[in-house]
Design goal:
- This protein is an alpha/beta fold.
- The chain is built from ten helices and twelve strands.
- The radius of gyration is 23 Å and the shape is elongated.
- The relative contact order is 0.14.
Length: about 325
């Protein structure tokens, strides 16, 4: 059976094993102590062995199994460093595996496009995606299950290196027969929908963001339905069950129920969302990860801008 742990987790373990002090090791690695603790716990689960003995008020000591693991790991990490140095000197195409986290609402219409462009340039790299809500992807980064992620800037916290690739404004989504969907189209305010039922995209950190949007607009939403799926929200709206607020735009208005939705830009001065490439702090990215980030930046540079960004540029 193949090993599930990652090189990042092994390097984290080596630092804790050497210092036998979680706080000191976290400082050396420039990551949070909670992130380091989560990574070590995940490694212990994956190898099925307790690597450290945890004693209240006395910190950590290596278990017998952990001491043997650390001794054998030293040579392995030295060899890994030699492989890395060798790979950096090669002019040949990249090869190997890369695991990328992606926030679920971004995955269906961003991941396939990015993957196609990346594979065209680096056919020998096998990319795998870990898809989930913000908290799931964040934890996958911290415990080493993925090397980088494409996600929103909400709920990240400290301990990450980020690169913003797009800023997207919030917009209202209504069904095609809604009075405000009829021509002529115009910007709308959330106050116009306060009495109407609202469908909330109910994901960790996402729900809190949308509540901040309403608070900033001075509106109390009448939440009628909650859904964890982006397309579920769109389908509920198309079916006439209420309106919603979303950020990410699709290239079409059709939904799974065979009816379209209508997107209306907001006049309210409410916060948008940044789409970001995210890596854990203190971890040297592989050339595969750097190449993936380059492809993402190029794709997003050519993507349509949000309504508000486009209007702002047109006014200059």
């Amino acid at each position: 059976m193949s090993a599930d742990f990652t090189l990042i987790q092994l390097r984290y373990f080596a630092a804790v094993a050497r210092t036998e002090n979680m706080s000191e090791a976290a400082g050396e690695l420039r990551i949070s102590q909670s992130a380091l603790s989560a990574s070590i716990s995940a490694l212990e689960r994956q190898v099925g062995v307790q690597l450290f003995v945890r004693r209240p008020q006395r910190g950590l000591t290596l278990s017998a199994a952990g001491r043997q693991f650390a001794q054998e790991l030293h040579a392995f990490l030295e060899h890994a460093d030699m492989l890395y140095d060798s790979a950096r000197g090669l002019a040949a195409s990249l090869a190997g595996e890369l695991t990328v986290g992606v926030f679920a609402p971004l995955a269906p219409f961003r991941a396939p496009i990015i993957l196609k462009a990346f594979e065209a340039e680096h056919p020998n790299v096998r990319v795998s995606f870990i898809e989930g809500d913000q908290e799931y992807v964040r934890n996958a980064l911290l415990d080493g299950r993925c090397e980088l992620a494409l996600m929103y800037d909400i709920g990240l916290g400290s301990g990450f290196t980020t690169t913003t690739v797009e800023h997207i404004a919030a917009h209202v989504l209504v069904h095609e027969d809604h009075p405000l969907a009829q021509a002529p189209r115009r910007e709308v305010s959330l106050a116009e929908f306060e009495a109407e039922p609202m469908i909330l995209l109910d994901l960790p950190h996402t729900r809190e963001y949308y509540m901040r949007v309403f608070d900033q607009a001075g509106v109390r939403p009448n939440i009628r339905h909650r859904a964890a799926g982006y397309e579920t929200v769109r389908s509920f709206v198309a079916g006439g069950h209420g309106y919603s607020i979303l950020n990410q735009r699709l290239s079409h208005d059709m939904t799974y129920v065979g009816r379209p939705v209508v997107r209306l830009p907001l006049v309210d001065d409410v916060p948008g969302i940044d789409v970001m490439l995210v890596r854990p702090d203190g971890v040297v990215p592989t050339r595969r990860a750097i190449a993936f980030e380059d492809v993402c930046r190029r794709i997003y540079a050519g993507a349509p801008k949000s309504d508000r960004a486009a209007r702002s540029e047109g006014a200059e």
